[in-house]
Description:
- By secondary structure, the protein is of the alpha/beta class.
- About 65% of the residues lie in helices and about 10% in strands.
- A hairpin with a 2-residue loop joins strand 4 (about 390-395) and strand 5 (about 395).
- It is elongated.
- The termini are far apart.
- The model is unreliable at about 215-220 (pLDDT under 50).
Amino acid sequence: MIRQLLNVVGPEQGAPVRRMLVALAVGAVLQGIAFALLVPILEALFGSDPDSVWPWIWSLLGVSFLYCAVYYDSLRTGFQAGATLSRTLHHRIGDQVASLPLGWFAPERVGQLGQLATKSVMDIMGVPAHLLRPLVTSFLTPATVVLVMYAFDWRLALAATLTVPVIVVVYRWSAGLNQKADEARTAAHAVTGGRVVEFAQLQPVLRVFGRGGRGGWGAGTRGLDDALHTQYEASRKVLVTGVPGLISFALVVQGAFTVILVTGTYLALDGGLDVAKLLAILVLSARFTEPIAETAVLGSTLRTARSALDRVSDLLEQPQLPQQDDPRVPLGNAIEFENVSFSYDGTPVLSGVSLVMEEGTMTALVGPSGSGKTTVSKLIPRFWDVDSGVVRVGGVDVRDIDPEVLMSRISVVFQDVYLFEGTIMENIRVGRPSATESEIHEVARLARVEEIVQRLPDGWDTKVGEGGALLSGGERQRVSIARAILKDAPIVLLDEATASLDPENQQAVQEALSHLTAGRTLLVIAHRLQTVAAADQILLLDGGRIAERGRHEQLIAADGRYADFWAERSRAQRWRLTRQYS
């Protein structure tokens, strides 16, 4: 576990942990020596010359003083290492998550990642502060005691040594009993965490259908009810399987002391060992078994910490999007797909897609839901790597471009907008952290965010809530457009950017988008007829393939799928809700 801990924190941050380990090892050895000094002290006290005890007393005091100094240093270093671990792990987890392909973020990962960044990190923080000390002491102190016992009576020392393999075997057996049960319990907790978040987020839907009232905790969603039951069963199994191992380990430790006791008694009765030395060695033997017995109490905590280390290690070992050692710089802002195929978890989404978006032109993607439109927009900033084919920006494969350079050229306004916890100004500033307040106010004016700010109680300092929950969908979209304008990137990707806006402000935001997209390479996923008709190029996707391409007039004249799409959308604009009378 110690080696795994050092691997998780990395070589740069491992120094405090290594220093603490050295201090703990020295302290454990000093503790064993202090226990061993009890033997000559008791021999002198019960012997014919009690005054001979003083040199041993002074030796014990000296060793105890050294132990206290080392103990203090290891304690201070342990808490420092715990704080360093927390900071390091959160940074490493954050860096790793930011480098993983978005395909890794399946829905079940929400609860797992949340538990990983909170409970798992806390469990690992407790290793240097609380667990390493008893762990090191339980091995090194008994080992020191046994080695010293050989100096006093090799027979009792040999008896103690012979019990060690039995103790190790039973310990491993008891730990193995709970390993699978602990893993199942951890997985159940992660699933339950995700279901609880889901239950909270879906309250509007649940209440509309009468599932959110009292007693609806499990009734509102069957998945939550099942998750809670699975968590209960997993926790119960840990207790059931852990008891036999805990009892067995306690018995074998007590059995080791009994073996030493019986051996010493036999030697004393046989005359081969005086009573004073026997008494002293039995005291020493008690100190041999006591630290080992403490590991049984720590067993569950150690397994929890090891499981947390395993989960963090597994995350850190997930393959990142590969990067070139010698990245290339795009020459321009044209976009090209060459025979691109892509799938989600083995399910094909795009197949043999080839297209060119010339620099400074507008391309519109249309087609039925699930045809791959959003996937095309997410392959350009390399949220995923393609299964086959090439995506190029400025004539360079996106896999050969430094990710920061690639993203600096792209502004994205997706349909599903997420705002960070903070103020409106802080969320807009994400587009360009170095922007001045006047620049932020200007883009806010263009996106009509100023109107939102004026009616909020704290103006620019109003908190938007988690995910922007305190703003409406249209308001969140306008903030998203404002930060895209602020970024001022040469490539703009719009995925239903005006879908959540009310008719009153739609025209104003369309004007802001015109300012955002002027002279830029623009990809639009839209169903609004005015947006589609104005495109320099229209691509109709169907079943992951480009079924038709061309300008609006050309595709209407071809009287194919696009013409049907246009006719259907035109009819939909005339839909009205009417009351039926019987």
